[in-house]
Each structure stands twice: as structure tokens, then as C-alpha cells.
Amino acid sequence: MSVKRKLQKKYEEGEISQEEYNDLLSKLDKLGIEVNEEESHDMKNLRVSGARRVHGGTFGKVLVSGKLISEGAIATSKLRISGKAEIGDNLDVSGDSKISGKVEVKGNASLTSESKVSGGLKVGGDIVSSGGIKVSGKVICGGDFISDDKVKITGKLQSQSVRSTSDVKITGKIETLQDVVAETFTARYAGGEIGGKLIGKNISINMDEVEKRIMSEIESEEINHISDFPSLAKYLVKTFKSIGRSSHFYSGTPPILRIRGDVEGETVEINHAVIEGGIVGNDIVIGEDTEITGIVRYRSTISCPENHNFSVEKI
Predict the structure, then answer these.
(1) How do residues 204-213 score in pLDDT, each as one tens digit?
(2) What does each C-alpha distance from 163 to 106, 189, 290 come to in angstroms?
(3) Letter string b/e over residues 97-110, b meaning 16 or more CB atoms within 10 A of that residue's CB
(4) Predicted structure pTM score
(5) Is the distance from CB of 102 to CB of 120 less than 8 angstroms?
(6) At a CB cut-off of 8 Å and minimum separation 6, what does 269 contact?
């Protein structure tokens, strides 16, 4: 509550007269105290276990297990959301963030330290991550997703574009309308669509890692001690679920990553993807389970199936 609102409340309740009210406002103005601004919430924590509506502000920690509605921007040193939060403007987190509930931000979101999203995060503007982010839930970004640290997606990321000066690793689903740019881009058993180009120093798209994990589980010592079929089936279901993609194996339709534009990198390894553009790189490896519409241009080395149906040029 602002200073002016507190004084007004005292006047309305008859604790001070009109003359005293005006006199106090005048003195505060002479002292340079801004009476119309909300009081600072610095170092004060915002805890919500029921339902609460606030105007916005700066807090030490924001801890929500209930429902929070903020009409304005929220700035905090630590964010913990296991309930639901609606923020009417920007979100600025200077410390770490953990979102296992649902958060909706009308403006931009700045996540300065390590962030983990196992629930849902929906941002109307840009997301800027500078401490590393792990998404096992769902992130929807109306603007650009920008990061200068590692990005790991085992859930789903949807944005206009992705721009990272570090590593981007996808084992879930990615959907962008424009380019994805990263230092290193790795997709393992990933699905989705990149609406523009995929650009990076090192690019690797294949299914080998998941296949190796499955084989290592199947060949483990634990499975050798299972003698009856029901127990074996239960073990395999648990194994596939732990990897997170069991439904694709049972349906026979593994996810595939589609790239609408070109792929550009120094080292490019692609097996199991659809490239509607071309590929440009120094050293390129193309697997059999890859569709390429454009031309593959390489500078140093190339490895591809003998019966490929795409054009190859040395540059």
C-alpha cells in the first residue's frame, strides 16, 4: 500500500483531519518522498498458499502453492511455483527458478540463474535464459527463446525462434516458426518442426543414444534373473517409460524432426530427419533414414548412403 493510500485511509477513518492530511502530504513532498509510488517490497517474500491478487513488485522470494494473480510485473531473487501464477507484465528472476505448476506471463520472462520447468510456462513475449534451463514439462513462448547457457528439452518447447550461444539438446519436441541457432545442437529421438534454418557449429540428429539405452537395459544383468513373462513385460514397460518414449515403440511410429529450411554447420551428422532445404558443412554424415529436398554441399568430407536420391556438391 502506498504512503498516500495509508494517509487517505487514516483520514477516511477519522484518525486525522483534512488539514493534517494535506499538511502531511506537503511535508512528504518537501522531503522528496514519492507518495504515489507503491512501497518497495525488496527482501520481502511473497508466499501464496490460497488465492491472492497483487499489483506487482519486487520480492526476495516468490513461493506459490496456491493461485497468484499479479496485475503488474514481478521481480524476484527466487521463484517456486507448484500452484498457478498469472503475471500481467514481465517476469524477472535473478536467482533460480523451479516451476512444477503453471505460470502465464503476459510480457517477457528473464531467467537469470538455473531454471527447471516440469510443469507449464507460457510467455507472451521473449524468454531470456542465462543460467541454463531444463524443460521436462511444456514451454510456450510467443516471442524468441534466447539463451547463453545450456538448454535441455525432454518435454516440449514452442517459440518463434531459438537462439543460443551454448548447447541445445532435444530429446523431446521442439516447434519453431523461424530459425534455431546454437553453438551445438543435439537431437536424440526428438520430434517436432523447425520452421526456418538450423544453424550451429556442431549438429547431430539421430536415434543412436536411445537405441543404446534400450539395448543396455535389455542386456543388463537384472533382466537375466526374470524367469516369467508377466514380470518381463512389466520390466520392459517400466524401462521404456523411464526413457520416456514407450508409446512410439509400441505404435511403430518414432518421432521425426522436420526442418523447413537449410542446415548449416561445421560438422553435421543426420540420421532420421526430414530436411526440406539443403545442407552445408565441412564434414557431413548422412544416414539412410533421412529425407533431403535440397542440395548437400560439403567442404572437406562426406559420408552418405550409396543409393541416396539427393544431390551432392563439393564447395
Answers:
(1) 998 755 555 5
(2) 21, 21, 25
(3) bbbbbbbbbbbbbb
(4) 0.75
(5) yes
(6) 203, 204, 205, 206, 284, 285, 287
